Amino acid sequence: MGEEGQVISCHTLDAWNQQLEKGNNSDKLIVVDFTASWCGPCRFISPFLAELAKKLPSVTFLKVDVDELQSVAKDWAVEAMPTFMFLKAGKIVDKVVGAKKDDLQTTIAKHMNTA
């Protein structure tokens, strides 16, 4: 799997846990996009996220469909889509709710610099 430079969709609990574990064992910033197929703003922000993933290979971008992995969305207290969670070494370091390109970019930049 060529994962650098792209958004990785987690369709199963196993895939999700595998990605999380990988992230916990590295210093890489992980951006998780909690999304839904029926969510307009999610579709709007998706190409932007793909662009960021291409530009920032040092950041891991994951995508979770809340309808596919409801337990994960519940565990992470996701109430609105899209919600972006920012993880570092297994801990949530930040969160952006909504399709806010500027906030997303600013938050990624902020946490990339605190490696």
Report on this model:
By secondary structure, this protein is α/β, with parallel strands linked by helices. Helix 2 (40-55) links the parallel strand 2 and strand 3. It has a five-stranded mixed β-sheet with strand order 1-3-2-4-5, with helices on both faces. The longest helix is centred in the middle third of the chain and has 16 residues, at 40-55. The chain has helices at residues 13-24, 40-55, 70-75, 101-112, and strands spanning 7-10, 29-35, 60-65, 83-88, 91-97. The protein has four helices and five strands.
Name the descriptors.
five-stranded mixed β-sheet, alpha/beta, 115 residues, globular, 5 strands, single chain
Strand content: 25-35%
> For the CA atoms, what is the radius of gyration?
13 Å
> What global shape is seen?
globular
Fraction of residues in H or I helices: 40-55%
Termini separation comes to 25 Å
Report the structural category.
Answer: alpha/beta
- Major sheet attributes: 5 strands, mixed
Summary?
The protein is α/β, with parallel strands linked by helices and 115 residues long.
How are the SSEs placed, and which strands pair?
Elements: E1 7-10, H1 13-24, E2 29-35, H2 40-55, E3 60-65, H3 70-75, E4 83-88, E5 91-97, H4 101-112
Parallel strand pairs: 1-3, 2-3
Antiparallel strand pairs: 2-4, 4-5
